[in-house]
Write a structure and sequence with these properties.
The complex is a heterodimer. Chain A is of the alpha/beta class. Helices cover about 60% and strands about 10% of the residues of chain A. Chain B has one domain (about 5-225, about 280-310): Rossmann fold (3-Layer(aba) Sandwich), CATH 3.40.50.300. In chain B, helix 1 packs across helix 12, helix 6 (about 115-125) crosses helix 7 (about 150-165) and helix 9 packs parallel to helix 11 (about 250-275). Classes of the chains: A alpha/beta, B alpha/beta. At the A-B interface, helix 7, helix 9, helix 10, helix 11 and helix 12 of A face helix 4, helix 5, helix 7, helix 8 and helix 9 of B.
Chain lengths: ~375, ~300
């Protein structure tokens, strides 16, 4: 099965995986491939390499997708490719402007110190805004398919959990319960509000508490909108309109992470669709005994260079054996028929359209075409 | 790499995801322990992987585990850090709070609180007078920090907090932590990068943002560098041989060599970008051709680091 078949009838493709495994590139390849096949596609990238961003005509962060011109790409598209780099801070600001009852109220919130920290520095804000953007593009954007690159994090699960964590904060219920004289807080500690607030102050500092209170006072009436949005995105992510594509490299840790994430998707009832394995070292074939090869190489390029060639090849094969073992481990976690698409380690970083098209062959080729490519790689 | 790096008390190791921060942190820890320094490598975010990588079984979360003589690891989660902080600071009432799930939810949701609690525990580990009962001091604390963006958050949060909270014990504590981080005779920040475009870009932008925060990078470790096995004369002979008839295995050897040369070339260009920015602060670690990074590989990397630190 290739990516085109995986994504047939899907409206959302989430590319998830641990940091440094090529998520952004994979998202770009998938979007380009589906646009080439006639769909109106938007790709939301989080942090593309500059050269890749340039290749897609993305000069700067922007919060609306822009149409990538087919001339610039130099490859024909039957559909349309739209691309954007997510600006977390601006997405958050726009959300506040959208839900605030008056422009003055929006300004007040944006000036609040707690909000300023929240919208920039805090882990979770990028995940939250990515999800929020997804909502806009899918529900209101008129795209056939939205491909979402997920924020870099050490832990792939962050992407799923951070929005909920942030929502629970925005909801402010915990704090409200604490502040209400008859609230939970009192019952738990079994004392009046005085000592409890005193303890809160002791631990958090007075000014912070005041800022928080102001923040929730301002935000309070709007939290319903946030919750509503979060619920709708969650429903969308769980529906059969969505496909989670795991992206990994063949090294041990990213594979561990992919296995963990695969299980998590099941537990969370999220639709898993397949795995892309980047930077895979294919076995370049064995056969003749190494003495025979050594003497052949010696006659081709001389004994010294020949010996270095063999040393290099044996190092390469250590990686090929490692990759094969790791992928087999991952394979055991997959149900029959769930696709696993290896993309070889290339000699250069993927940074232009030609590079994307090269990867595309591995993701969109028929089984037979992929087998041919592999043959080519080895022979 | 600055030869005095291991004379600091606290080293933050940061870099883009997937570049080998944990490996480098442990290898650095091994090199320090060999010098006789009582060293602890701390992982943050509750991943709990380090003790295993260092050849020991899993320790309990938040426990200081001696994985080899003089080398300890700990996995710090903000939840555990908060429990400890409340017990130390809050007395009986703090103890009660530390058992309140509602309070935990609220505290964890407070922007920056997770980072502050984490870095607070790191700070506690680095103090000559430990705050936790019966705890012995360390000569060196190495922090396997989160990926670049969040890693910067970890370094910056104490200062932000001391400004936001203005008064109260948190402001005071955060101020003390911020001062420790800013003291370059005490604290060092090390970036790990592989010689590829994105990790190099991130290292350069991390450097720029650290400078903005009044901090700097003390060393940059270029990890997973391919050996230079073939020179230009070799290359010519290989290209010629590649056009001749040969067995599948011999052709594979030639192709693998051409590939290696090409990749090493790309790496050199990226390494040059780092050398340009961090002349004198740059060190190189070799690519490890091995199925996984175990204790033997870590020892070898520590050998290289010892050479570099001389």
């Amino acid at each position: 099965m290739n990516v085109e078949e995986i994504l047939a009838g899907k409206g959302v493709c989430v590319c998830a995986g641990s940091g440094g495994v090529g998520k952004t590139t994979t998202a770009a390849v998938i979007a380009l491939g589906m646009a080439a096949r006639g769909l109106k596609v938007a790709v939301v990238t989080i942090d593309p390499a500059l050269r890749l961003a340039n290749a897609l005509g993305l000069e700067e962060l922007s919060n609306e997708p822009s149409l990538v011109s087919a001339e610039l790409l130099g490859t024909p598209l039957e559909g349309e490719l739209w691309a954007m780099m997510l600006d977390a801070k601006r997405t958050f600001d726009e959300l506040i402007e959208l839900v605030a009852p008056t422009p003055e109220r929006a300004e007040e919130i944006k000036a609040n110190r707690v909000y300023r920290e929240l919208s920039t520095a805090v882990s979770g804000s990028q995940e939250f805004t990515a999800v929020s953007k997804l909502y806009e593009l899918v529900i209101e954007g008129g795209f056939d398919l939205v491909v979402l690159d997920t924020p870099p994090s050490r832990n792939a699960l962050d992407f799923l959990e951070a929005p909920a964590r942030l929502m629970s904060f925005l909801d402010g219920r915990a704090l409200q319960l604490f502040l209400r004289p008859t609230g939970f807080g009192m019952r738990i500690v079994g004392a009046g509000a005085g000592p409890l607030l005193g303890a809160l102050r002791r631990v958090t500092g007075v000014d912070l508490l005041a800022d928080l209170t102001t923040f929730f006072g301002l935000l309070g009436p709007m939290t319903e909108v946030f919750s509503q949005r979060a619920r709708e995105v969650e429903a969308l992510l769980r529906s059969d309109r969505t496909a989670f594509v795991l992206v990994t490299s063949a090294q041990s840790e990213p594979i561990d992470e992919a296995i963990w994430f695969r299980r998590r998707l099941d537990e969370a009832n999220l639709p898993f669709a397949g795995v892309v394995i980047n930077r895979f070292h294919h076995d370049l074939g064995s056969g003749e005994s190494s003495e025979a090869v050594a003497s052949e190489l010696a006659s081709l390029v001389g004994a010294d260079l020949g010996a270095r060639l063999l040393a290099n090849l044996s190092d390469y094969h250590v990686l090929a054996a490692r990759d094969a073992a790791n992928v087999a481990r991952l394979q055991r976690e997959l149900v029959d028929g769930e696709p696993l698409l290896p993309v070889p380690q290339f000699d250069d970083d993927i940074h232009d359209v030609a590079g994307l098209l090269r990867v595309q062959e591995y993701l969109f080729g028929t089984d037979q075409r992929r087998a041919e490519l592999l043959e080519d790689l080895i022979a | 790499m600055p030869s005095g790096l291991l004379e600091r008390r606290l080293i933050f190791v940061t870099g883009k995801g997937g570049v080998g921060k944990s490996t480098v942190s442990l290898a650095l820890g091994i090199a320090a322990a060999r010098r006789g320094l009582r060293t602890i490598v701390a992982e943050v975010g509750g991943d709990d992987r380090l003790a295993r990588s260092a050849g020991s079984g899993r320790g309990a979360p938040f426990e200081e585990v001696e994985v080899s003589p003089g080398l300890f690891t700990i996995s710090i989660s903000p939840e555990d850090a908060m429990g400890e902080y409340l017990r130390i600071k809050g007395g009986a009432f703090g103890g009660a709070l530390s058992h309140s799930r509602l309070f935990a939810t609220f505290a964890m949701a407070t922007p920056g609180m997770r980072e502050l609690l984490t870095v607070g525990k790191v700070w506690e580990l680095s103090q000559a007078q430990r705050r936790t009962r019966d705890a012995e001091p360390y000569d060196l604390v190495i922090v396997d920090s989160p990926a670049t963006g969040h890693g910067r958050g970890l370094l910056r949060t104490p200062r932000t907090f001391s400004e936001i909270a203005a008064v109260g014990p948190i402001a005071h504590q955060a101020g003390a932590i911020a001062a420790t981080i800013a003291d370059r005779s005490f604290t060092a920040v090390v970036a790990v990068a592989t010689p590829e475009e994105m990790p190099v870009n991130e290292t350069l932008s991390l450097h720029a943002s650290l400078l903005q925060d009044g901090l700097d990078l003390d060393a940059v470790l270029v990890n997973a560098c391919y050996p230079q096995r073939f020179d230009l004369a070799d290359l010519e002979r290989l290209q010629k041989a590649n056009r001749r008839r040969a067995s599948v295995r011999a052709r594979a050897a030639i192709r693998a060599a051409l590939s290696e040369h090409e990749r090493a070339e790309v790496q050199r260009e990226q390494r040059a970008r780092l050398a340009h920015a961090f002349d004198g602060r740059l060190s190189t670690l070799p690519f490890v051709f091995s199925p996984s990074i175990g204790i033997g590989e870590l020892q070898q990397l520590a050998d290289t680091l010892e050479q570099e630190l001389r």
